[in-house]
């Protein structure tokens, strides 16, 4: 699909690590592995706000025959520390993480720790107005000791609701923040438990309830009958709530991977669903297995306005794919390819302003005509 406006608006070199929450804590050099996967919303002043995931990594994670990770340590009074594991017990094939052998379970640690940086953009999303380092969101408890990832922001009425992934050995949970202005956030705690990711709160109520897309993960899925149009595996599920804090899973399934394609063999939510004249527009990601990371693309569906378990219309061709032309100037910083991960959407008049993470490295803004989602 052709897009009239498609550009990177924030890259790793735009981040000032001297103003990072980690600054001064570690006796080791860090760098920005990626500034990506931005939540997006419109501020009361008309500007846009990206909540950017800054993945701050050790320049040399391997030394003294150990591979190291950064951890926020509550016992140390809220300081950041380094942990080391012997290389003999670690698989470092994926640049974003390392797997630890033994124990009978899949166990991993990250090569970076992520925190969230609010970045204010012009109303069209194409220029950076301010980086609000004083409003950065960083770990504050042991349930976030390995970082906070992938914010998604929804505006429901006059309230801003932001879901994030909080990472720790305790659990990989979905946590919630609330705000009246999208700059000053209150931590509301865990709303979904272990390995339920990509939680997107609908931007509006349905029959008086908050609704959300969720994506539980696991290693075991039951088979669909032979000849089914669906493929077993991770799917986009639904949940609803009276207050956006306590959630009940919906009995009906949401968006499921199709058996006829491997492009959505793994899938999950992208941008929070927004209401259009035809129903709820939802942008989501599908992952085609390829090498270690896979190929990430963005797709879209329209959900029924009264029953979002009903898919009114969908498009099997991708809406967005990774764009090598955009990342050519920062190719020397690339560590994964073929990844676009859409995380935000805002109304731009005759078009939508779509925010994505590009190559787990940078923030991409794309203007997509609203006519792209209407029937001819």
TrEMBL record:
GO molecular function: glycosyltransferase activity; hydrolase activity
A Pfam family: Glyco_hydro_130
Protein origin, superkingdom: Bacteria
Keywords: Glycosyltransferase, Hydrolase, Transferase
InterPro entries given in the database record: Glyco_hydro_beta-prop_sf, Mannoside_phosphorylase
Keyword field contains Membrane: no
Family: Belongs to the glycosyl hydrolase 130 family.
Full protein name: Putative GH43/DUF377 family glycosyl hydrolase
High-level lineage: Bacteria, Pseudomonadati, Pseudomonadota, Alphaproteobacteria, Sphingomonadales
């Amino acid at each position: 699909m052709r897009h009239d406006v498609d550009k990177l608006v924030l890259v790793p070199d735009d981040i000032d690590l001297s103003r990072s929450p980690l600054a001064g804590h570690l006796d080791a050099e860090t760098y920005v592995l990626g500034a990506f996967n931005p939540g997006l919303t419109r501020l009361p002043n008309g500007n846009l706000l990206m909540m950017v995931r800054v993945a701050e990594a050790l320049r040399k994670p391997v030394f003294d025959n150990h591979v190291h990770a950064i951890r926020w340590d509550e016992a140390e009074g809220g300081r950041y520390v380094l942990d080391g594991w012997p290389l003999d017990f670690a698989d470092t094939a994926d640049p974003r993480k390392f797997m630890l052998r033994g124990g009978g379970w899949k166990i991993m640690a990250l090569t970076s720790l992520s925190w969230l940086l609010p970045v204010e953009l012009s109303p069209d999303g194409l220029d950076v107005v301010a980086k609000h380092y004083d409003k950065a969101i960083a770990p504050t408890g042991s349930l976030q000791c390995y970082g906070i990832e992938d914010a998604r922001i929804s505006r429901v009425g006059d309230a801003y609701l932001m879901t994030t992934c909080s990472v720790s050995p305790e659990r990989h949970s979905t946590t919630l923040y609330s705000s009246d202005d999208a700059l000053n956030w209150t931590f509301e705690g865990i709303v979904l438990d272990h390995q339920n990711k990509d939680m997107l709160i609908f931007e509006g109520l349905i029959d008086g309830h908050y609704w959300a897309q969720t994506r539980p993960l696991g290693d075991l899925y039951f088979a669909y009958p032979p000849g089914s149009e669906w493929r077993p595996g991770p799917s986009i599920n639904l949940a609803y709530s009276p207050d956006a804090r306590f959630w009940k899973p919906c009995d009906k399934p949401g968006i499921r991977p199709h058996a006829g394609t491997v492009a959505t063999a793994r899938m999950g939510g992208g941008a929070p669903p927004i209401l259009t004249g035809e129903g709820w527009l939802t942008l989501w990601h599908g992952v085609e297995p390829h090498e270690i990371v896979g190929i990430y693309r963005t797709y879209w569906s329209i959900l029924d306005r009264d029953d979002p378990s009903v898919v009114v219309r969908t498009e099997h061709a991708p809406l967005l794919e990774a764009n090598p032309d955009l990342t050519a100037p920062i190719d020397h910083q690339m560590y994964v390819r073929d990844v676009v991960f859409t995380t935000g959407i805002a109304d731009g008049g005759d078009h939508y302003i779509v925010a994505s993470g590009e190559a787990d490295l940078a923030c991409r803004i794309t203007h997509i005509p609203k006519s792209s989602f209407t029937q001819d």
